[in-house]
Write a structure and sequence with these properties.
The complex is a heterodimer of chains A (about 300) and B (about 110). Chain A has about 300 residues and is of the alpha+beta class. Chain A folds into four domains: about 5-85, Orthogonal Bundle (Helix Hairpins), CATH 1.10.287.110; about 90-125; about 130-195, Urease metallochaperone UreE, N-terminal domain (HSP40/DNAj peptide-binding domain), CATH 2.60.260; about 200-275, Urease metallochaperone UreE, N-terminal domain (HSP40/DNAj peptide-binding domain, Sandwich), CATH 2.60.260.20. Chain A is built from ten helices and 13 strands. Chain B has a two-stranded antiparallel ribbon with strand order 1-2. The chains are: A alpha+beta (about 300), B mainly alpha (about 110).
């Protein structure tokens, strides 16, 4: 940043009154609301007011002169000036004043027609879209649901969740946004969906993954067991001699998509019975599994 | 987003009596009813402008009214100019409106 004395055009020895005078002289010329079309004025005004903030505070000025602080950080935080609102405000705001050109519009047919057309278009402009955020349950995202979204400004909105919706997907509800400022149609409500995690299901694309605990008996002898799927439990055949880490595929039990369904992958996890088990201990101490049974073989270096 | 009167006074660094005068002079036109006025961010920016005019730019009360009236006319002119430019632009390229195409694409 430039030297604040230079910005204000005063000497280092200037008195506080001189500094204030210099600031006021520049502010009169540069105030952004008096120069609404000039980006340059706005930049300069920010510089000038930043410099004035620094030099009008005796303590800050002393520290700056002593080299303790530099001129950076003296910029005023971004301010919205009145002109920014006047430029953005919708037609019909309370301070609107058309007397600056009313005579042209009355006597010049072309101008009158153009302005009339713009006014008509503005009247028929769609209302703005409104953005919302909705967290839904994992299973509702897969199976579909109807959610009630409570709006911050009061009122509710029925949101139909299509089956198989994905994290971050945006639902557009036609005409549920803000009303038009004139006679146009309302804007849309845009609802961004986030999906809460499930206790045991996880999702990769259109496939569902689940860890399924089985007993030692079921693993060794094989069994028909009930496996959870997003649509409810189904019977799953665990083959004889199954092991922890084996993956079974339940075809078509995943997330619905346009051409059918994804799959569910069930990863088996053998779980020993809890607590000491004398019979199992007795059996295992007499049991010789054979030399090929070394689960850590691959880890030996 | 509406701002209540106490919040407005604090954010604009105004006292109650001054605000009443400004509203009476129609320098500020808050919405709402007489018993419960509501202010917008626009009103707040306008109040800061009036404060700048009076405190920093040495404008007296009569001058503030004149300046605000001229400023409002200037913003009206700027808006009319912007609308005319927009009309002229649409006339010169009526078929080429990418913004509306994008919207249709994102609609499902």
């Amino acid at each position: 940043m430039k030297d604040p004395y230079e910005i204000l055009g005063v000497a280092q020895t200037a008195s506080p009154e001189e500094i204030r005078k210099a600031y006021l002289r520049l502010a009169k010329k540069l105030h952004p609301d008096l120069n609404p079309g000039s980006k340059h004025s706005e930049e300069r005004f920010k510089e000038v007011s930043g410099a004035y903030d620094l030099l009008s505070d005796p303590d800050k000025r002393r520290r700056f002169d002593g080299g303790e602080i530099d001129a950076s950080g003296a910029d005023r935080p971004h301010e919205r000036f009145y002109k920014d609102f006047a430029a953005d405000a919708a037609a019909g705001h309370p301070y609107e004043n058309r007397s600056g050109y009313a005579d042209f519009a009355e006597t010049d047919d072309i101008l009158a027609e153009l302005l009339r057309r713009r006014a008509r278009e503005a009247r028929h402009a769609r209302g703005p879209d409104l953005h919302y955020h909705l967290s839904i349950e994992f299973l509702d995202a897969i199976n579909g649901a109807t959610e009630l979204l409570t709006l911050p400004k009061g009122g509710t909105l029925h949101v139909t969740i299509p089956p198989g919706i994905q994290e971050g997907q945006m639902l557009r509800l036609r005409g549920k946004g803000a009303p038009s400022l004139g006679e146009g149609e309302s804007g849309d409500a845009l609802v961004e969906i986030s999906i809460n995690p499930h206790r045991f299901f996880s999702r990769q694309g259109d496939d569902i993954h689940v860890d399924l605990p089985i007993t030692l008996t079921e693993a060794v002898l094989g069994a028909q067991i009930r496996a959870p799927t997003p649509k409810g439990p189904v019977v799953l055949t665990v083959p004889k001699g199954s092991n922890t880490g084996n993956v079974l595929r339940l075809k078509g039990r995943g997330v619905p998509r346009r051409d059918g369904h994804g799959d569910e992958f069930v990863t088996l996890r053998v779980v020993l019975p809890p607590g000491p088990n004398p019979e199992l201990e007795a059996f295992l101490s007499n049991w010789t599994p054979g030399t090929s049974y070394d689960p850590r073989r691959d880890m030996q270096s | 987003m509406n701002i209540s009167k106490p919040d407005f006074l604090e954010r604009a660094q105004l006292d109650h009596a001054t605000l009443e005068v400004w509203i009476q002079e129609e320098w500020l036109i808050p919405s709402g009813t007489a018993s419960e006025v509501a202010f917008s961010e626009m009103d707040l920016a306008r109040a800061k402008l009036i404060r700048d005019l009076k405190n920093d730019l040495g404008v007296n009360d009569e001058g503030v009214g004149v300046i605000l009236n001229l400023l409002d006319q200037m913003h009206g002119l700027r808006r009319a100019l912007a609308e005319l430019l927009q009309s002229a632009r649409e006339r010169s390229a009526p078929a080429d409106d990418p913004s509306s195409m994008d919207q249709d694409k994102s609609r499902k």
